[in-house]
Fold this protein.
Amino acid sequence: MGNRRIKVAVGLSGGVDSSVAAALLCRKGYDVIGIAMEIYNGPEGIRESDIHTCYGPGEKEDTETAALVCEKLGLPFFVIDLREEFNKYVIDYLKKEYLSGRTPNPCVVCNRHLKFDFLLGKAKSAGIDFDFFATGHYARIDRFGEKILLRKASDPAKDQTYFLYRLTDTQLSHALFPLGHLKKQKVREIARDLGLITAERPESQNFMTGEGYSSLFHPDEQREGDIVSERGEILGKHGGIVNYTVGQRRGLGVASSSRLYVTRIDASRNQIVVGDRKDLFSEGLIASDLSFITHPIQDQPYRAKVKIRFRHTEVPATVFPNEKDRIIKVIFDRPQTAVTPGQSVVLYSGDAVLGGGTIEQAV
């Protein structure tokens, strides 16, 4: 690249993390550009809370905030229209999964296809030139020649590698995560010191606001059905399987002397199956749609630590690969609760991400 400064496009969300990521790159002497995704294509009348969501009418305010951050840092800023792509790759996927009785993971899909693919492709097609793409994710990348390792963030409480495991070697080779070695408290301190408008902004905790995912579905897609016990007894009615997920306890609308949890969702019968907490435990799982960064499917069992949802602490397990069917069977050292079809299982070796897949069923 000669004496030319390395150009980095930073994905800005209007939050403190991406804002500080941009500021840190400026400090290091990179030629920084701010870019943001336009993804919301829904009704504007929905009222958001003070905590904005990833997908909602608050996007306009988020974009305006990102623009102010760039103005403060003296950076060019561009908004890339990805509404069509988001609807196709994230919203349609989400709806299909829920209607199939599964619980999707839109953040994993959005990172793989939107942030690290379509956003960059459209930006370059618009004439925005850059060498690397950076985000405010809490994760780390180690490069050893041609080898790329995605590692957990230094702050385990903020680690977001669970949402990044589907990124390819090529995507990671051009990615930067400036916050990977920082704690959240330090990130806010940096934002305050720089006088960034995002310094005290709360984090986006949810994907959607208002009525949640159910607002994406037509009333005909939310058919009433039975809530049944593990023995098949009808205990009540539900207003649509899209409103439930495995492990759910609140809002079941079923009177019982003991706590009940959703243990299964039977889309073929349009039933929500509930049971005691003990019914949530599983010895392991089957996963498909595999994606590995540095650890392709083996022909022999191997040990790993696995994470079955974002807020789940990874646990030791044995992984049994099946190269022919492109699946893995994971057996936990100790039974785990609420193994949920549609969610991701992510495999770790130490703090390095091996890869993962989509949970098909508990075993």
Summary: The first helix runs from residue 16 to 27.
